[in-house]
Amino acid sequence: MIINTGGTIGMVRTENGYAPKKGALMSELEQIRDIYSSEMPSWDLIEFDPLLDSTNVKYEQWNQIAYAIEENYSAYDGFVVLHGTDTLAYSASALSFMMENLNKPVIFTGSQIPLCELRSDGRDNLITSVMIAGDGTVKEVGLYFGDRLYRGNRSTKYSADGMVAFASPNFPSLVKAGIDIEYRMSNMLVRDAESSDSNLSVTEYKECKIGVIKVFPGIQFGLFAPIVHEMDGLILETFGTGNIPTYDHALTDLINEAARRNTAVVVCTQCPQGTVRLGAYEAGSALVKAGAVSGYNMTTEAAVTKLSFLLSRGCSFEAIRILMEMNLRGELSK
Ligand code: ASP
Fold first, then answer.
1. CB-count exposure of residue 230 (10 Å: 0-12, 13-18, 19+)
2. Which residue's C-alpha comes closest to atom 3 of ligand 1?
3. What confidence tens digit (pLDDT) does each residue in 110-163 have?
4. Which of 64, 86, 59 has its CA nearest to residue 3?
5. Residue of 85, 112, 115, 163 to mutate, ligand 1, most atoms within 8 A of C-beta
6. Known catalytic residue: 299?
7. Which residue in 5, 8, 85, 300 is the catalytic one?
8. Ligand 1, residues 12, 18, 55: which to mutate, most atoms within 8 A of Cβ?
9. Reduced 3-state DSSP string for 125-166
């Protein structure tokens, strides 16, 4: 099943630039003979209404995608989700958390150039994604772009205008689509007997009060205090292995106060590659003492969607602190 949520792949030219249009994707597909080839898996298309530029995607659309998959789960071998590239990695991460016991491929893809344009990358991204979804080997949420399938919750948009627009800096690809489609089984999630026998279950996302603060030289943490006090969770994008400036106590005061209010603080790194090692430097150990937990090598996209997932599930502050440091869906390694 192909689920069209919007995004560049099915957009048309308008006076104000590219925008989604109902039915436009299907009209483009009708002109691509290969999509109807007997070598392709058979497919059906459903289209969301309204179709969105993915900059407007939020938790409601994640729920809508998950329910579309859940309702059609037994009728299809796999699912391709067409989505704008801007928030593709967030949505792929979100779906990976909310869909427990997933045993079929859910492949997110999109394109940098719409199918209506001559040099569109949409055709190849779509065809290969449908082939991977129909094959059924991948039993998790993936993001296909360029020539690679990455784990959804390990991927990040890396280029604003390149055709190889995504990267997975801390985890190797699941599939490499060269001359052959090469499945890299050793990189895929392994299901234990219990989870592969269990039925798919979906946790609905709810609106959560969380924030992300990116640390920079000279940052005045005191300025953030009034907002942080309103939050249920905070992600700090720190320097290197989890280091923060220590020129004043504003941040540690902030984290202490957050802990007092049961607001989980998760430390990620702003380096695309590598992992947080809390306490390796004096400049980071203050975070541990104040009660922050490590996001290890999670992308910010994974950290945001995981924290929102745990809050949506109604987990306690203590459970969130433990689970954020645990590997739930292959999103982190220690
Ligand atoms: N703004 C578009 C979107 O994310 C960009 C794209 O699809 O490439 O929907």
1. exposed
2. 84
3. 999 999 999 999 999 999 999 999 999 999 999 999 999 999 999 999 999 999
4. 64
5. 85
6. no
7. 8
8. 55
9. HHHHHHHHHHHCCCCCEEEEECCEEEEHHHCEECCCCCCCCE
